[in-house]
Amino acid sequence: MVTQSIKTLTSIERFQELMRGLNIPQRLSLPILEAALDYHERTAQRDVLFHQVRDFFATRATRVPKGLDRLPAVWLTQIPEVLWATRKPHWDSLPYFIGALGVEQGILRVAYLQEQPSNSRRINMWDQLRVTLNISLKPNLWTPLTNHEERAVWEARPDLHAELFRVH
């Protein structure tokens, strides 16, 4: 029962509901986001990047979350900076104990080891961090592409031209 409740806390449906409740509209479709992530993946040095991010978690968060190796490379480059920016000035390490990270339907799923199931519909600190990560890691579903990314998607994916027009 507890495991099922924890899965609900990290579910895509719950996160989408959270974003709607915060009045943060989705700006990109999943195919456009995936095309932009693919563009960045082609230029990434994934092995080097993975080791750098793993070292960040090992030294600054005391725990390396599962799933790092399956995250988009462009997000991997940004995760340490985004997380580090959320700390209080006197913190030497991050207290979040992130157990796992994953991507589903363009959303970064974050599971925390300390998070307990709750019947409350209120936004807690775990949810705040989920939102911060999801809107800070670029590209994402809630932020328009940069001109450079849009041009790259336009050139690589003619099948998305009509959808790119709808974004504006």
Radius of gyration: 17 Å
Number of helices, counting only DSSP H or I runs of 4 residues or more: 8
Number of domains: 1
Low-confidence stretches: 1-6
Q: Distance N terminus to C terminus?
A: 44 Å
Indicate the structural class: mainly alpha
What is the percentage of strand-forming residues? Answer: 5-15%
- Integer average pLDDT: 90
Order of helices and strands: HHHHHEEHHH
Q: Within the largest sheet, what's the order of strands?
A: 1-2
DSSP summary, beta strand count: 2
Instruction: Label the overall shape.
Output: globular
Helix content: 40-55%
Largest beta-sheet characterization: 2 strands, antiparallel
Which key phrases capture this entry?
8 helices; two-stranded antiparallel sheet; disordered N terminus; mainly alpha; about 170 residues
Fold topology:
Blueprint: H1 2-9, H2 12-21, H3 30-43, H4 46-61, H5 73-85, E1 98-104, E2 107-112, H6 125-136, H7 147-156, H8 161-167
